[in-house]
């Protein structure tokens, strides 16, 4: 638990998932250690979202997965959710995955004595997009099937492995092979990630804090860009005195400062001066959203000097809810 706590402290984590699978989850001592650590972290970190993920089978989960539930109950430990991974185990599409979730729902009720609604509220699912390790196929339509089930039954978690695979291979089917960097199905970038965004919209978290970017004078009519907002292609925002249009789905990509070129610069708003970014007499390197910074790193952004409090990547100085950057004043 102490080692995990160091990670929580360093990165200001809001959530943590314990992925318990082969071969470790066949070791009862190891399972007790992991569950005990999760329980300590839950107790010592108010508001930390703790989830436990284990293997999925057509019957919900297997013998060792049931041991995870039984041991959690014996410890008096109730995480925010128990999730299963319904893939790599003889599944065939979304219908078989939702059937497994129903079986797992029954296991949760029987193990913990929960009502049906309470069991659903403590249940989650972790999917695999496209072609699985075992050659099962889970295209976008199957993700929609599971999303419909998750939202209609009030599941508390809907996620997948992995965002890094949420892109099309070349050729699209990857010659019938599974890849760790693409999905092996025909798709546009981030199609599977959009399902998780829809799930978040079905059970909204607390409203994100407003952007701290100071409004620019002039006649910008587009809403200000916010790093916490998910934008679809064609969305328009104002940022740094310019109007920008999203080319595709995006979240957290700073207009004018991302390697993918997500945003099209439509020019300065009428009457707005064009900011210089680093501006003034700044001698520090300009902030870059694709660069990983360690605590103590200094950058220039929007005419100010900034110091990172801890490791960060993609968090815009002055415009993130975690307050990663210390504003050292204007250049």
Structure commentary:
- The protein has 331 residues and is an alpha/beta fold.
- A five-stranded parallel β-sheet has the order 1-2-3-4-7.
- A hairpin with a 5-residue loop joins strand 5 and strand 6 (137-138).
- It is built from seven helices and 13 strands.
- It is globular and about 65 Å long.
- Helices cover 28% and strands 19% of the residues.
- Helix 3 (63-75) runs parallel beside helix 4.
- It starts with a helix and ends with a strand.
- The chain has three domains: 2-202, Glycosidases (TIM Barrel), CATH 3.20.20; 218-275, Seminal Fluid Protein  PDC-109 (Domain B) (Ribbon); 276-331, Seminal Fluid Protein  PDC-109 (Domain B), CATH 2.10.10.
CATH class of the largest domain: Alpha Beta
Distance between the termini: 43 Å
The dominant shape is: globular
Overall domain count: 3
> From the coordinates shown, what is the CATH architecture of the largest domain?
Alpha-Beta Barrel
| Secondary-structure class | alpha/beta
Secondary-structure element string: HEHEHEHHEEEHEHEEEEEE
Runs in which pLDDT lies below 50 for 5 or more consecutive residues are 202-218, 272-279
Number of helices: 7
* Oligomeric state as shown: single chain
Radius of gyration: 23 Å
Helical content, roughly? 25-40%
Q: Estimate the mean pLDDT confidence.
A: 86
Count of beta strands: 13
As for the CATH topology of the largest domain, it is: TIM Barrel
What is the CATH H-level superfamily of the largest domain? Glycosidases
């Amino acid at each position: 638990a102490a080692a995990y706590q160091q990670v929580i402290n360093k990165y200001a984590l809001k959530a943590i998932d314990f992925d318990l699978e082969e071969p470790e989850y066949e070791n009862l001592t190891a399972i007790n250690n992991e569950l005990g650590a999760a329980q300590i972290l839950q107790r010592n970190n108010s508001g930390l979202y703790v989830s436990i993920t284990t293997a999925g089978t057509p019957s919900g989960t297997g013998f060792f997965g049931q041991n995870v539930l039984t041991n959690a109950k014996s410890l008096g430990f109730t995480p925010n959710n128990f999730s299963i991974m319904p893939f790599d185990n003889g599944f065939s599409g979304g219908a078989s995955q939702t059937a497994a979730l129903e079986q797992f729902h029954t296991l949760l009720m029987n193990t913990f004595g929960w009502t049906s609604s309470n069991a659903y509220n403590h249940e989650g699912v972790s999917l695999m997009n496209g072609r699985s390790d075992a050659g099962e196929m889970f295209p976008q339509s199957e993700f929609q099937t599971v999303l419909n089930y998750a939202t209609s039954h009030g599941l508390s978690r809907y996620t997948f492995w992995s965002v890094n695979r949420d892109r099309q291979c070349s050729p699209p089917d990857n010659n019938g092979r599974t890849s760790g960097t693409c999905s092996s199905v025909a798709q546009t970038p981030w199609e599977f990630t959009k399902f998780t965004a829809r799930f978040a919209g079905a059970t909204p978290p607390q409203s994100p804090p407003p952007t701290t970017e100071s409004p620019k004078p002039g006649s910008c009519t587009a809403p200000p860009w916010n790093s916490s907002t998910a934008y679809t292609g064609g969305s328009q925002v104002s940022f740094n005195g310019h109007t920008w249009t999203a080319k595709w789905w995006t979240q957290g990509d700073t207009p004018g400062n991302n390697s993918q070129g997500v945003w099209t610069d439509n020019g300065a708003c009428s009457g707005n001066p064009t900011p210089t970014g680093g501006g003034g007499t700044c001698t520090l390197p300009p902030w870059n959203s694709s660069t990983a910074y360690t605590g103590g790193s200094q950058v220039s952004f929007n005419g100010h000097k900034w110091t990172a409090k801890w490791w960060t990547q993609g968090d815009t100085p002055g415009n993130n809810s975690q307050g990663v950057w210390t504003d050292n004043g204007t250049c």
